[in-house]
Amino acid sequence: MAIKVDNLTKYYGDQKAVDNISFQIKTGEVVGFLGPNGAGKSTTMKVITCYMASSSGKVLLDDIDAEQSPELIKKKIGYLPENNPLYMDMAVIDYLKFCAEIQGVPKNEITGRIKEMIELCGLNIEKHKKIRQLSKGYRQRVGLAQAMIHDPEVLILDEPTTGLDPNQIIEIRKLIKELGKEKTVILSSHILSEVEATCDRILIINKGRIVADGTAEELRKQAQGQELINVQIEGKGNKDDMKKALLGLASVETVLDLDGKENYFQVQSKPDLTSKKDVFDLCVKNKWYLLELASKETKLEDVFREVTN
Amino acid sequence: MNSIWTIAKRELASYFDSLTAYIIIILFLGLTGFFTWVWPSNVFFRGQADLNIFFEVIYICLLFFIPAITMRTIAEEKGSGTLELLSTKAISDWQIVIGKYLSSLLLIAIAFACTIPYYITISKLGNADHGAIIGAYVGLLLYTSAFVSLGIFASSITSNQIVGFLLALTFLLVFAFIFGFLGSSIPGTIGETLYFMSARTHYDSISRGLIDSRDILYFGGLTFLGLLFSQAMLAKRNWKD
Question: Which residue from A minimizes the CA distance to B18?
Answer without folding.
Answer: A89
